[in-house]
Specification:
heterodimer, A: 337 residues, Rossmann fold, 6-stranded parallel β-sheet, 6-stranded mixed β-sheet, 11 helices, 12 strands, B: 353 residues, mainly alpha, ABC transporter involved in vitamin B12 uptake, BtuC, 2 strands, 2% strand, Peripla_BP_I (chain A), Mannose-binding protein /fructose-binding protein /ribose-binding protein (chain A), SBP_2_dom (chain A)
Chain lengths: 337, 353
């Protein structure tokens, strides 16, 4: 029954094909859900690129973030329909690996987009943002903006208790960039720097951001710097600060670079945000599968890293010296969502 | 025995006593069960008081401050309002899984109509409220007239409404600053009244007024008594002259309208309008209702209990966070409370037969 529902849902969610009859290869895109603007944009990038290259594209998505079963059903469908490759944003990075192995055994190229699998080598290649580096950029920016960081009172708004790798990397990157000893790099929450006053959860959305910020303020009203996992959480945190009249005393930094987020940088809600490029991830993925279909060649990682780095930009309207930064206008020109 | 018969004889002598429960047994346990049966909100109120007292002792001023206590009210306002809608439906022995989705659809309609279509903000708000009312009317019609099970109807409604939200909004967020500039009325419920460190948002005040209003309507009007009667035994209610169909449709419609108001309050709280909001509102509202002592089998309980149920969740969540405990402890305790609450309900139900 479970397999049937998952299969039906997989079918019901867009299984569209683009490109001409003389397709130069075929590819499946499987994202976590079809509603998050990040994945909506990723699918747009994939469709645009596949139309350009004449690659046949099928797009699948889980029903919600965390829907592992629908993703497995989608991989099975892709193997059955004999495509050349799969671009996968895994909901469960460790559990999906056996299905991924099945696809690779069947001769499909599997590229993990945005989220590395666990272990990272379970996929043929990973096209992703360097999330640690994204965190480092906003951490450095915050430290340089503050100057003397000894008075910093830091609140951290992460995603959720399961500590997904993306969230851990951003959090640890931020603390590293700011000059805090992170303890175990694979977990947030074990740091003992007195400047950190609390960790809260936001679920990566505005409601959670608001509630998390309220809790942080209840724990320590003196907070003056807030790291947020993404911009919706930052916008929620700002609403909480605004309701207590604290919005001008607290600096908020974030990661993602969605268009509403960049506009929030312009509006002074967010001090700086690290921008990701989901369109680029998907477009490069489609290209890689097309190459693989034509020549059998596997994509190579970025030098010195175990994945292909799709880049990250720091967007701020208050630039600091000694860092590469994008203005709000530049950020808006290449934002997603 | 003597004592019991006296009670039975005494029961009809006052108008209040006619509807009250007089058990066949006596003693302390029976007295307690009777009290709980007649005042279903008393158990959650007791749990709430106990929880506040324990966290107060453990945390002192950081928890018992006006700031923290009113913060809990703010944090439960949305779920509290949605849980009022859920309470009405559950009182009729139904369930509404679409409450969160209807809330979001209403907020998206308000935002899109005012910001994208450029309609006057008052009209946009009215359209959002109407939208919730229509969703409720459809569910009510399917339950009352087509006679489909409420679980199935609202399960379908949930998916249809949520899909509509994503299709209509394109998954796009309307930013707080845009709303503030173009349709500030949408953020009305986010305004705050501060009194000596206590912060009351208009959303919180709306919730409290809603509880008071529903308590009055359910307890003092014919319609309110009909709601209880339909939930307790629709067949008997029909024979007694209650229009079961009309009552059910009106309950679902009112629930839809209340959800739409929750959508409006939600915009005030988070500033922006996001189709991703409120994903767990249906489960959270059912949690508040059940912990609040409303019977899932219909016909018994009070909306004041639901408010206490929502507050218990809020007190646990903030209290445990301030203690620095892992958030999983909150889920564990809430889960235990849900089971306990249903256990108490069953116990009283058995005793009252």
């Amino acid at each position: 029954m479970k397999i049937m529902t998952a299969g039906l849902a997989g079918l019901a969610i867009s299984a569209a094909a683009a490109g001409s009859a003389a397709a130069a290869g075929s590819v499946c895109l499987i994202t976590k859900d079809a509603t998050n603007p990040f994945f909506v944009k990723m699918a747009e990038g994939a469709f645009a690129k596949s139309a350009e290259l004449g690659v046949e594209l099928r797009s699948f998505a889980g029903r919600f973030d965390g829907d592992h079963e629908t993703q497995v059903a989608a991989i099975e469908t892709c193997i059955a329909s004999d495509v050349d490759g799969i671009l996968l944003v895994a909901s469960d990075t460790a559990a999906i690996t056996s299905s991924v192995q099945m696809a690779r055994d069947a001769g499909l190229l599997v590229i993990a987009l945005d989220t590395p699998l666990d272990p990272i080598g379970a996929a043929d290649m990973t096209f992703a943002t360097d999330n640690f580096q994204a965190g480092v950029l906003i951490g450095e920016w915050a430290a340089r903006t503050m100057g003397d960081t000894s008075d910093a009172r830091i609140g951290l708004l992460n995603i959720n208790v399961s500590q997904p790798t993306v969230g851990v990397l951003r959090n640890q990157g931020f603390l590293t960039g700011f000059g805090v000893d992170i303890g175990d790099p694979n977990r947030w929450g074990d740091e003992d720097d007195p400047r950190i006053v609390g960790h809260e959860l936001s679920n990566g959305n505005a409601e959670g951001g608001r509630e998390g910020m309220e809790n942080l303020l209840a724990i320590a009203p003196t907070i003056n710097l807030v790291y947020t996992i993404n911009e919706p959480a930052a916008a929620g945190a700002y609403e909480a600060l605004r309701s207590f009249g604290r919005q001008d005393d607290v600096m908020i930094v974030s990661v993602d670079g969605g268009c509403p987020g960049v506009e929030d940088v312009a509006a002074g809600v967010i001090g700086a945000t690290a921008q990701q490029y989901p369109l680029q991830m998907a477009a490069l993925g489609v290209e890689a599968v097309a190459d693989y279909a034509a020549t059998g060649e596997l994509p190579a990682p970025t030098e010195g890293k175990d994945f292909f780095d799709t880049g990250v930009g720091l967007v701020t309207d208050a630039p600091v010296e000694g860092m590469e930064q994008l203005s709000v206008e530049e950020g808006l020109a290449i934002c997603w969502g | 025995m003597q004592d019991t018969s006296e009670k039975k004889e005494a029961a009809p002598s006052t108008p209040e006593a006619v509807a009250s429960f007089v058990g066949g047994r006596t003693g302390l346990i029976a007295k307690v069960t009777n009290t709980i049966y007649n005042m279903p909100a008393i158990v959650p109120l007791f749990v709430l008081t106990l929880a506040v007292a324990i966290f107060g002792i453990l945390l002192g001023d950081s928890f018992l401050s006006p700031f923290a206590l009113t913060l809990i009210l703010q944090q439960v306002a949305i779920i509290g309002i949605v849980a009022m809608a859920q309470s009405l439906v559950i009182l009729t022995a139904g369930i509404d899984l679409s409450v969160g989705a209807v809330m979001i659809l209403s907020s998206v309609v308000m935002g899109k109509f005012s910001v994208d279509l450029g309609l006057p903000q008052e009209v946009a708000v009215a359209c959002g409220l109407l939208c919730g009312l229509i969703c409720g009317l459809i569910s009510g019609f399917l339950v009352a007239v087509v006679k489909l099970p409420p679980f199935i109807v609202t399960l379908g409604m949930w998916q249809i409404v949520l899909a509509t939200v994503f299709l209509y909004s394109g998954s796009e967020v309307i930013r707080s600053q845009t709303i503030a500039a173009e349709a500030p009325l949408l953020q009305f419920f986010g305004k705050t009244i501060s009194i000596a460190g206590a912060n009351f948002t208009y959303g919180v005040i709306f919730l409290l007024l809603l509880v008071a209003g529903l308590t009055y309507v359910l307890g003092q009007t014919a319609w309110g008594r009909h709601v209880y009667a339909v939930g307790d035994d629709p067949g008997a209610a029909e024979l007694a002259g209650v229009n079961v169909r009309k009552t059910l449709i009106s309950v679902y419609a009112l629930a839809g309208l209340i959800c739409a108001f929750a959508g409006w309050v939600l915009i005030g709280r988070i500033g922006s309008i996001s189709p991703q909001s409120g994903q767990f509102a249906n489960i959270e509202s059912i949690t508040a209702v059940v912990i609040g002592g409303i019977s899932l089998f219909g016909g018994r309980g009070s909306v004041a209990g639901t408010l206490f149920g929502a507050l218990i969740v809020g007190v646990f969540t903030l209290g445990l966070r301030l203690l620095g405990l892992d958030v999983q402890w909150t889920y564990l305790l809430i889960g235990a409370l849900i089971i306990l609450a249903v256990g108490v309900d069953q116990r009283i139900r058995k005793a009252s037969v």
